[in-house]
Amino acid sequence: MAEKKERSGAAMGDCRELQELARHHIDSFDYMVERGLEIMLDNIKPVKISDSSTNTSLKLYLSNPRVYEPLKESSRTKHKRLLPFECRQAKISYTGKFEAEVCFEYHGRAVIREKYNFGQFPIMLRSKLCHLSGADSQKLVSLKEESAEMGGYFILNGLERVVRLLIMPKRNYPMSMVRGSFRDRREGYTDKAVVIRCVREYQSSLTDQSSVTVKLYYLRSGSARLGFWIQGREYLLPVGIVLKALVEASEREIFEKLTCCYDEKYEKTKGAVGSQLVGERAKIILDEVRELSLFTQAECLRHIGEHFQPVMDGLERETYSNVAHAVLKDYIFVHLNNYDDKFNLLIFMLQKLFSLVDRTSVPDNPDSLQNQEVLLPGHLITIYLKEKLEDWLRKAKKVIQDEIAKNNNFNLLSVSDVKKVMDRNPSTSISLAVENILKTGRLVTQTGLDLQQRAGYTVQAERLNFLRFLSFFRAVHRGASFAGLRTTSVRKLLPESWGFLCPVHTPDGEPCGLLNHMTRSCRITSYFDSQGAVKDFFDIRKSILGVLTGLGMTSSLPKFVHIGPPQVLYVLLDGRFVGSIPSSEIEKVVAHLRRLKVSAASVIPDDLEVGYVPLSMGGAYPGLYLFTSPSRFIRPVRNISIPTEDGQNIELIGPFEQVFMEIRCPDGGNGGRSDSFPATHEESHPTDMLSVVANLTPWSDHNQSPRNMYQCQMAKQTMAFSLQSLRFRADQKLYHLQTPQTPIVRTSSYVKYCIDEYPTGTNAIVAVLAYTGYDMEDAMILNKSSVERGMCHGQIYQTETIDLAEEGSRSDRDQRMFRRSNLDKSLHSVIDSDGLPYVGQIIHPNEPYCCIYNEITNTTRTNNRKGSDPVIVDYVAVDTKNKKNLQKVNIRFRHPRNPIIGDKFSSRHGQKGVCSQLWPDIDMPFSGVTGMRPDLIINPHAFPSRMTIAMLLESLAAKGGSLNGKFVDATPFAGSVKKANGETRSESESLVDDLGEMLRSHGFNYHGVEVLYSGVYGTELTCEIFIGPVYYQRLRHMVSDKFQVRSTGTVDQITRQPIKGRKRGGGIRFGEMERDAMLAHGAAYLLHDRLHTCSDYHIADVCSLCGSILTTSFVQQQKRVVRDIGGLPPVRAPKKVACHACKTSKGMETVAMPYVFRYLAAELAAMNIKMNVQLSAGA
Amino acid sequence: MEGVSYQRFPRVKIRELKDDYAKFELRDTDASIANALRRVMIAEVPTIAIDLVEIEVNSSVLNDEFIAHRLGLIPLTSERAMSMRFSRDCDACDGDGQCEYCSVEFHLRAKCITDQTLDVTSKDLYSSDHTVVPVDFSDPAGYDSPDQKGIIIVKLRRGQELRLRAIARKGIGKDHAKWSPAATVTFMYEPDIHINEDLMETLTLEEKQSWVESSPTKVFDIDPVTQQVVVVDPEAYTYDDEVIKKAEAMGKLGLVDISAKEDSFIFTVESTGAIKASQLVLNAIEVLKQKLDAVRLSEDTVEADDQFGELGAHMRGG
């Protein structure tokens, strides 16, 4: 028996689970404000300015950033809080002041700190700086917000915008890649490389999120080149030079380290990665350096310094070796501070590269989630802000230096002088830049910031309905650069993304597979631990290292280990080579680490990723890769290898480790795995692999999978309950359903995510039959009486913002105000004395809705409604900031939108249809027993090919549920979940049997069919009809917004053809394919009518002598003395045309032609080409 | 010209009668008449419902159209409806629908001045005509809950106010569902069930039991004494053919013979409360008669006889 879920009596909006959905956005922003900005400022390189004339030097740098909570601008000292709803209504941005100290450090003197205002910084809603932070649902309501407001977005100019989560290559993990484009780098390059995206780290493992990608290319010669980008150009260094420059090591030492992964003994055994060629290659690498006659570390450094001095900024006067150190520090493996670590990592990468070349390991897939992480809003802003601040300092330096050069009176020693000069470079532009990237989603940058795209970083979070809004926070985009790619490999659904990305919830069409959605259980690691404290990665790593050495790891420092796989496995911790563990011990170590991860008492974080890649025959490159970093995907699974005490075995796993783990389904089976690999983990619930929206489809496991995808799309375009706080909103367009219901058949997610706060449809009685023929081809018949009783009624709220200060020329800005004209009394019924409409007033198309008076010209102007349907004034809000005159108003209109023919509806199973008739109630078929008439009739042909069995089940279950008076639980995969008593659901009878019996017990047919009688004749219909309640959604596509008609109307100025566009009353294009159809039918007359008569019909005068249609002109009739015959109207002289060229009107003929033809002749004439028209009688 | 008369004399037998519920048998007629009666009851018996709302103040959370729509759907006692005029053919008020012959005026004034939510209900509607008031659903016995309040229109919080004037007019369900006096009207053919006793006796008791239980509704039962299958409630049969299918599955074709009596119907009428269920049926017959009068041909049209032949005579009431 299907479980019936009682609606939990949870307090309104107190929905914890809902708040978690946008947590990753908020956490990343909070960290940025709390620590990220400070770390970033501290690591911006100071700029040095020196005045050679006075021999003084000044060092400029930034420190102590502070962002304030949003406050209202006010003249008095007392500031008032600026609340988000005010920003939405006033169409302003939700920003707080951003301040930082600029430090002026003169050589050898105390530092002078000056506070600088860096402008108004956008604040994320519900972050710690936001006024809504920590508010419970009651407080939120009192602040005029949604009771379940989750935050995570910004308000800019009144619009809500979210930063799009973007897929990035996993940080600090060397990835082996095969890509054809590597071959085109230069002569001699192969398609193989090892690539690592390093995220910069400073002392005590602090990072500012900026990253540098380093590529290690393999050359055909057997050597390798290290490639990295400086200021938009890729530089390639022979790897030997870098190796030697990093550490003072003998060639023998380097050789041994490179070849340690090869041991003859183990060749071709399981897990061996080296081959004998490794030695050859090592030799070639070393020979290369020798050929350049570079022998020592110092020589190598000098070599690097010499070549890089021109491109390194601000190091023009440094020694070559200092420049080289700067290159090594700033561009090569920036996540490591220690040269030994860098050296070890480079050796590791070379070994991985050689293994890739020797085919002892396979390349990593950059499109797989295993090697990916996500770009979070806080991180993006930090990276961007860093560049903008660096730019600002650089510019400041430039203006000061210019001033020094120009102005002799300028005193570098005087801080006030310097500050005055610096003000030419406004500091407030910094926050403006941040606001701009959030507003437009476009990065304005020279360096590219190691990001793959320039635009599309933010999107507007439309509140079309709640599900759509929610999905913006769960969406993960692959990157704009992949959208244009013709290959489909990036769009593939790979098994690695299991449990992290929803396989169902992706749009069909253009962004298919690129725009994915996180599953409901998937989270993103952040800088905050579960207690909300900032994580100390330095401590975490230290304790992990402690644990590892305790378990028998040989540390890599100071000397690199001299054996490799398969005897030992290398251990990398956040991209740092830390040592090796004997392969016999490794399983134990991994199990131990996992145990520590789960246990609350240990210092090992619960989101540590234990990426154990086991030894294999030519599989992935083996090793133990540990990750503690933020912005990784994680999800909870049950660790069943740990003896469970009170459910303390939930482990958070990442996509990297998941691939090599044995996770079974909780249905009690072994999932077909052999006994040698017993399952160590178990999924917590099968529906955890679906996104929130996909989780709302009842019994989605009974549907054909594309139907579930369509439903995810349609759920997001349903006209539903978009907001509870509708009164305080000024959104451009809001859809609203008047009388929604909660579905009878529901999944457990409805309760979990408080979907009942935002219902999306109506339980309609649906009969499946072919009746009247108006339900063909996915059309559906609605019961007219049901509609009249309120089914699917809805409104569109549309807000017009009129800001007198913004529109029009600057000169007459202040002279305009809202005021009604006293002269035009006809306006008085529509517009109040303040120039604004009455609330509740109906306004028809082309009627005025507000009146603006200009004091100077003493004229009034009215704004008239556009569009084709009458609207009702719902709400008028005025901005009282300007005390003198009212300048800014929001007028909200309400468009009533009750169902009519042509509106679109859909069930929750991807079954959409268009209303084809509002059928009278009495003509609908009725049930003899209950007298019920269906609300809606759909055609049985909707089922066989689409196989939406769940819709049939829903109908059955809802019927039974409504008879029982209880909701029916329709959580998918219920059969594969253990019940509390450890048994799986009794699958002896199928679900249908359960539902059938439920109906039968209430005296209804087991199969859900009923005998219906024709409403027209009163006779029994020949077969029994499947009828029952199905939850139907009304989609936002409505004919009222789409219909387009035209008889005659505006034409294009140049071609005299009808214009296009619904708004302007244009026509619909009769295009080539339509033309082809006409021709194929031989409908010549119709074709002529469409393309000529109804288009640009024109009668031209053609001169048959010269064949020109351009040289004709009307001849001025000379006043001829015409004798008027009394009583008759004056003779109409025929219009006379003559040819200019021939100077006669003899050969003039009139010809009907399309006007564009004449235009063509004119265009050709402009190119000095004459067009000749030859006339002949008869075709 | 004499034709065969098809005139029949239908009989009505009332089974059950309550204010808002009626069950009766209609015999000696055919499906067309039965269905016509059903259709008229749903769509053409006039009632009174609020049709025009003038809103003076509305500071509630629901918008004007929403409230107007809700007001329209409130059933009003409509005994007067049959004798009232449609606004569109009212001479007294030139069709503007505001005179006493064709309309009833309602007023509603409600303001919440306490911190408690105020329910504005149909009881708050003040009618200008005491015969046309919102239907009272409260239990006449009154002990169920003493403060029965009627149909909720809107809920008000402190400071919110609703003030309006509403005009109720006569109308029919065809124009808008709000004028429909019937919640449900349905009829079924009276079933004629014959059990083949001889064949039935070939079944064991368990087989009989399972056959009896194959019907989702309780039509058959086993006599505890004689252990014979008997028809206990033929009208519970829903024409779902379950028992026939079951008999077929048991290999006993023709175990039971069920047919619908083509000329007898069992009607169930549920009223919205606007008109009493019994009155609804009578009104429906009245309306049906009026409609038939409209198509009745005048007596002296000879050419009509040529045209329609026997039918003409029939339509004249032959």
TrEMBL record, chain A:
Cross-referenced PROSITE patterns, in alphabetical order?
A: RNA_POL_BETA
Report the residue ranges that make up the RNA polymerase beta subunit protrusion domain in this protein: 20-416
Pinpoint the DNA-directed RNA polymerase I subunit RPA2 domain residues. Answer: 578-635
One GO BP on record is:
DNA-templated transcription
Residue intervals of the RNA polymerase Rpb2 domain: 203-374, 461-524, 1066-1174
Top-level EC class as recorded in UniProt? transferase
The reaction(s) this protein catalyses: RNA(n) + a ribonucleoside 5'-triphosphate = RNA(n+1) + diphosphate
Instruction: Identify the keywords attached in UniProt to this record, alphabetized.
Output: DNA-directed RNA polymerase, Metal-binding, Nucleotidyltransferase, Nucleus, Transcription, Transferase, Zinc, Zinc-finger
Fetch the InterPro entries from UniProt: DNA-dir_RNA_pol_su2, DNA-dir_RNAP_su2_dom, DNA-dir_RNAP_su2_hyb_sf, RNA_pol_bsu_CS, RNA_pol_bsu_protrusion, RNA_pol_Rpb2_2, RNA_pol_Rpb2_2_sf, RNA_pol_Rpb2_3
**EC annotation from Swiss-Prot or TrEMBL:** 2.7.7.6
**Family affiliation:** Belongs to the RNA polymerase beta chain family.
Q: What is the role of this chain?
A: Essential for the completion of the three rounds of mitosis in female megaspores required for the development of mature gametophytes. DNA-dependent RNA polymerase catalyzes the transcription of DNA into RNA using the four ribonucleoside triphosphates as substrates.
Name assigned to this protein: DNA-directed RNA polymerase subunit beta
Species of provenance: Manihot esculenta
Write the lineage as a comma-separated list: Eukaryota, Viridiplantae, Streptophyta, Embryophyta, Tracheophyta
Automatic annotation (TrEMBL), chain B:
Q: Where's it mainly located?
A: nucleus
Highest rank taxon of the organism: Eukaryota
Pfam families according to UniProt: RNA_pol_A_bac, RNA_pol_L
Q: InterPro entries given for it?
A: DNA-dir_RNA_pol_30-40kDasu_CS (IPR001514), DNA-dir_RNA_pol_insert (IPR011262), DNA-dir_RNA_pol_RpoA/D/Rpb3 (IPR011263), RBP11-like (IPR036603), RNAP_Rpo3/Rpb3/RPAC1 (IPR022842), RNApol_insert_sf (IPR036643), Rpo3/RPB3_RNA_Pol_subunit (IPR050518)
Q: What keywords were assigned to this record?
A: Acetylation, DNA-directed RNA polymerase, Nucleus, Transcription
* Location(s), subcellular: Nucleus
A single MF term (Gene Ontology): protein dimerization activity
What is one term from the GO cellular component aspect held by the record? RNA polymerase IV complex
User: What's a GO biological-process term for it?
Assistant: DNA-templated transcription
User: Which residues belong to any copy of the DNA-directed RNA polymerase RpoA/D/Rpb3-type domain?
Assistant: 21-298
Q: Which family does it belong to?
A: Belongs to the archaeal Rpo3/eukaryotic RPB3 RNA polymerase subunit family.
The name under which this protein is listed is DNA-directed RNA polymerase RpoA/D/Rpb3-type domain-containing protein
Organism of origin: Manihot esculenta
Question: From which lineage does this chain's organism come?
Answer: Eukaryota, Viridiplantae, Streptophyta, Embryophyta, Tracheophyta
